[in-house]
Amino acid sequence: MLYLLVVIHVIVCLFLIGVVLLQQGKSADLAGAFGGQGSQTAFGPRGAANLLTKLTTWGAVIFMVVSISLTIMLSRASGDHSVLSGAATQQSAPKK
């Protein structure tokens, strides 16, 4: 189950990278280059959320849920619950 979640996590990460890179910026049109708003619609120049923004939102939700699931599964799998449990102990320098 853990390996399946890791594979899903990597796929969602690559999907999010692709979807974000495909989107245009807020002011990517010609009117945005000169500081104009583009149009006077109720939702602004971009309009309602298009398909790419919805895919980005769902991808981010899936990313967060899988991240939390992986964290919970890894904490239950290992006996240690401390972040520093695997770190080497530091010894203080000898006093003169």
Write the layout of secondary structure elements.
Layout: H1 2-22, H2 30-33, H3 51-77
Describe the structure.
The protein is mostly helical and 96 residues long. It has a domain at 1-21 and 49-75. Helix content is 54%, strand content 0%. The chain has three helices and no strands. The chain has helices at residues 2-22, 30-33, 51-77. The N and C termini lie far apart (55 Å). The mean pLDDT is 76.
Q: What's the quick description here?
A:
The protein has 96 residues and is mostly helical. Helix content is 54%, strand content 0%.
Broad structural category: mainly alpha
Radius of gyration, in angstroms, nearest whole number: 23 Å
Number of helices: 3
Low-pLDDT segments, ≥5 res: none
In terms of DSSP E residues, the strand content is: under 5%
Major sheet size, sense and barrel closure: none
Instruction: Report the mean per-residue pLDDT as an integer.
Output: 76
N-end to C-end Cα span: 55 Å
Global geometry? elongated
N-to-C SSE series? HHH
Primary descriptors:
96 residues, mainly alpha, 3 helices, elongated
